[in-house]
Amino acid sequence: MRIDIITVLPELLKSPFDASILKRAIDAGLVEVHFHNLRDYTTDNYKSIDDTQFGGGAGMVMMIEPIDKCISALKADRDYDEVIYMTPDGETLKQGIANQLSMKENIIILCGHYKGVDQRVRDLFITREISIGDYVLSGGELGAAVLCDAIIRLIPGVLGNETSALTDSFQDNLLAPPIYTKPRDYKGSKVPELLFSGNLPEIEKWREEQAYLRTKARRPDLLDE
Ligand code: ADE
Hints:
By secondary structure, the chain is an alpha/beta fold.
């Protein structure tokens, strides 16, 4: 898989890809992530990427031309399955979206800034708009990092134990059950006895029940989906 990220702040974006699972995935060649600085696609001396809004109003708008140049240059080299725009008014990121995107070959992610992009960018180039939640960030970069993390960990071979991504919270619309490790007794707080029984079917049943109870208590909306 290849991910091309278009941003005005590449330095803000790079560090999450330089550690832990994302770095391992990149080093192993399971995913390529490329950063494109939008200012490299400007034509004026000031490297402007934004301007004031037609019709008046506060806040700058990202201009179409540098974005067109960048996306067109990428598309000249390969086909893309999706051109995603990170924006608070997009569809809210859910595990199902990450699952779908993890099966794509090539995607572009455009990070918005200021008031956002000229509407014609959205009309002409964008195939999917994604929000990471109902709050406004200063730009799309952190959202893009969240989206990439959610996608990349699902690519086969990225997680050591391939089944572990499937047992994550949300994969079956249930939150994950409680988990424990050593010590067995921490200052009187004990691990449930059943987990030492060696009875795997009973342990599995207990985990399913716990997942259901936790979901019912914390996220009953997931049970309706
Ligand atoms: N850009 C600004 N806020 C955002 C959000 N909530 N999700 C994705 N991109 C954003």
